[in-house]
## 1
Amino acid sequence: MKRLVIMTVGKTHSGKTTFAKALEKELLNSVVIDQDNHAEFLHEHYQSLLPKQGSNTIKYAITQAIVHHAVHETNCHMILCNSNRNRNGRLKLINYYQNKGFTCILVNFEIPDHVLKERITKSERSTSILRVAATFDEVLLRQQAETKEGDILAPAGDEAEHLFVIKKQEDVESVIRKIVDTAF
């Protein structure tokens, strides 16, 4: 069986998690790996272990353990639901999964900033997962400032076997269909 790894790329509130959950329902034998879930788990159960500053190494360790298990102990397709905006980081992940025999798919969310701001305003999402910022508005401002600086770049078509772009909510269903078709 051909295994897929689908990586979402996008700013906060662009629809990555909603997309990942919808794809998981349609793509048989798939699992969503979402670091926000790991951050929430740590915040709820192990707050005293969270670093006060610097990298959240415990969150990354949990994610790595889950990914390792999924890659080596299952035959699941994997949906990586993170921002993945750093090109070098993306390429390292893609290389890892390609070396494990996965077909890599990038889904880039190019949602206009005014839509993201509106979504943040209406959001009921908990800010407990945030460590560096106090609000999702702050996260968006940081992401806007980072865009096209250094290694924060939109994915290029040659990074993975497939690249799909979502510019509006109406694109989601057709991208899900194309990914499901790719699995067969």
## 2
Amino acid sequence: MKLYHCPQTRSSRAVWMLEECGADYEMEIVKIMEGEKPAHFLKDNPMGKVPALVDEGVVITESAAICAYLADKFPEKKLAPAIGDPKRGAYYRWMFFMAGVMEPAFIQKAMGWKAERQGMVGWGDFDRMLNTLKKEIPEEGWLVTDHFTAADLLVGGTLVFLSQSGLFEMWPAAEAYGARCTDRPAMKRAQEKDAG
């Protein structure tokens, strides 16, 4: 497996997930912030974004898709409820909530964008997104099952990252949940690789 990665970006989620899986992978740093996009990288990923994972000739982009792919590739790690498990629906909800609601709502708020027709934006708005998280983030434990899953990696990790923006304050349950997610040994290993 090969991961195209740029440190301190959304791509760090993929590094964390690879570490959670105990995957054997190589990493190629692509300095996208400096405009570096080698031809072989663009051949694998014409969007020119990171992360991009190549596994046995299959290219997977988008951090949530990479996390879902890896969770299914390493079922023994139990980072996703099994296919057929009723909890799989909630797992999918949170995987896509991060990518389809959390990030766009945050970016809209950070950039000061106004939606002329609110019904046209599929993520709703920042306040509704935040209120949903306030109702759903558990005071103890995890979002979907009785153990950590890829949904926690995405939602918890993103919540911690977004909290550093100053656009909202973490509430006690979110602080505790974020700490449970980011205090994991795999996250620490990913951070070391990101820094190195």
## 3
Amino acid sequence: MKPADPAAVRKSRIFLLLIALVFAAPMIVAGLLSWGGWQPGTKGNGEPVLPQRNFVDERLRVQLADGRFYAWRDSEPRLTLVALAGPDCATQCLATLTKMAAARVTLNRNQSRLRLLYLGAPPVNDAGDGMRNYWQLGQDVDGKLAGYRPAAPDSVSALLVESNGTVLSLYRAGFDPSGLRKDLQRVIK
């Protein structure tokens, strides 16, 4: 048997390592990007709520206008968009609430998979503007959501809550309702 040429062995090993690198490189790059916090295609308009909260586990009680308590878990899987109004909800606040309700309508056949819940003092002239046709009105009994409520007058923030009570994202006062609409269309399919 003829002894192997050391140069040929070295060349074969380098070639084998290059082939392995071609397959491993994408996994290494994906791992580094993920470790750095980048996730492809997951750019939402809302902010993540950290630490993550679950309203069922926290026993967050919301009393509706009719005296019943809001059920975070429903008979069917549906998300809840919670609107939290700042003091003196009037023109600007009502315009944002209307756009939020319109975002639900744009879900077409899937609009039944989103519930709208308004927490706080009802807007000025809420009976005359048809708000009660779209929104369930209620109060945060224990004040556990006070940190998400805007302090600026005539403003509104929102929380998107999964059907199991887990908060998916926060939309701070001044958010873009069209961005919320895009997020809803991504989440509710």
## 4
Amino acid sequence: MDVPPPLAACSLAELTALAQGAGLPPVERWHPTEVLDSRMVIRADGAWWHEGAPITRPAMVKAFSTLLMRDEAGQHWLVTPQDRQTIEVEDAAFIAVDVVERDGALAFRLNTEDTVIADAAHPLVARGTQDHPALYLSVRHGCEARLNRSTWGQIVDMAVDKCGMDGELWVESMGIRFPITPQNPA
């Protein structure tokens, strides 16, 4: 498995090339009728488990992650041309473990070594409460990444630099403004 370069060492062009996701299978075109249970769980900390034991090979996790999708009902699936298998996801299918700002773009590194640039197709969404906020990044096929604590802290530092008179915290990527605090209903 090739190790991608550190985000901080990449130009926007290099980050964009990394984010293109070369070699991803076309799960959106597969519509198998056979439904199975994978007996897998993606824990809230991003660890993958199968039948009660952790999957410790990063290459195996990376391969499985390319087959993930989430349907409109919120069910996560591992999809192949032959079947689709349910997979339990405790929080988010991915964890964003790093972020860098380059030329008006926020590029995130995931726990699977994928790179995602926040934009209209990959928005940042604030959830939780004012006291316990959580940020999620849309990845692909309905799946999301939750920002880990250090990545969330990096985003907060970027937002504080942009904080206006209204006190709202936000970041911008690819010309789109993303609030980073949940908007609690009144």
